[in-house]
Design brief:
The protein has a single domain, classed as 3-Layer(aba) Sandwich (Carbamate kinase), CATH 3.40.1160. The protein has 8 helices and 14 strands. It has helices at residues 16-31, 46-57, 63-87, 119-126, 152-163, 197-205, 213-222, 244-247, and strands at 3-8, 35-40, 92-95, 102-104, 113-116, 130-134, 137-139, 145-147, 168-173, 178-179, 191-192, 194-196, 226-230, 238-241. The strands form 4 sheets. It has an 8-stranded mixed β-sheet with strand order 3-6-2-1-9-13-14-12, with helices on both faces. A hairpin with a 7-residue loop joins strand 13 (226-230) and strand 14. The chain starts with a strand and ends with a helix. The relative contact order is 0.15.
Length: 249
């Protein structure tokens, strides 16, 4: 059975109604005959709120303790989405970064993923469950949680898609796809149907916030096809992958 990795950002999980919508999207994926691994960000502005709480206590927070604090945001999202799926009759389980086998370097706040051991994820899929993984985080050699920096959930999703040899990594967000400019600022901006990895990387490094540059680099290195599409509306979104010339190399 083919596998799809779906990632839902914070705006797609901002409250109970949005979480139910995300659960329905995942349910549709399963009904279409796919296995599903779902990567989640923290709800809404949770990460900023947690940083704000830490800032009220100290102006020089320990980076390890910040990571201990920040990883809780994605764990809330993962557990709530699992509950929403179970309410729809879809067997599911939530895993944090360590449970999902995401190993990182010994660096807090901006860690790089070193490897992924997908053994637990594969076992849960084999048991017929949707697997929901906390994005933005992993575990270092000492067993401490680490975070991957801003946009880290995108990177988590693409890295998991590569490790699991997924057919597709689907980034579900609050826009319909990748645009030529910010449609909230430029009314004439148009959505782009297809992009090469290089074209998407140029947009991402130029300030397009729809997909993090590290995620694009990971997708390119592992030849993972990616789509960026709306969490709330139907539509194919923007496909990102190899050009015909790259595929022939």
């Amino acid at each position: 059975m083919a596998l799809i990795v779906q990632k839902f950002g914070g705006t797609s999980l901002a409250g109970p109604e949005q979480i139910r919508q995300a659960a329905c999207r995942v349910q549709e994926t399963v009904r279409n005959g796919y296995e599903a691994v779902v990567v989640v960000s923290a709800m809404g502005h949770t990460t900023d709120q947690l940083l704000g709480l830490a800032g009220q206590l100290t102006d020089q927070p320990c980076r390890r303790e910040l990571d201990m604090l920040l990883v809780t945001g994605e764990q809330v999202s993962a557990a709530l989405l699992a509950l929403a799926l179970q309410a729809l009759g879809v067997p599911s389980v939530s895993l944090n970064g360590a449970m999902a086998g995401i190993r990182t370097e010994d660096l807090h706040g901006e860690a790089q993923i070193l490897s992924i051991d997908p053994l637990r994820i594969r076992a849960e899929l084999q048991a017929g469950r949707v697997v929901i993984v906390t994005g933005f985080q992993g575990v270092n050699p000492a067993g401490d949680p680490t975070t991957l920096g801003r946009g880290g959930s995108d990177t988590s999703a693409v890295a998991l898609a590569a490790a699991l040899k997924a057919e597709l990594c689907e980034i579900c967000t609050d826009v319909d796809g990748v645009y030529t400019a910010d449609p909230n600022v430029v009314p004439t901006a148009r959505m782009i149907d297809r992009l090469s990895y290089e074209e998407m990387l140029e947009l991402a490094t130029g300030g397009a916030v729809v997909l993090h540059p590290r995620a694009v680099e990971t997708a390119k290195a592992n030849r993972v096809p990616v789509t960026v599409r709306s969490s709330f509306h139907a539509g194919a979104g923007t496909w990102i992958g190899e050009t015909k010339e790259e595929a022939g190399r």
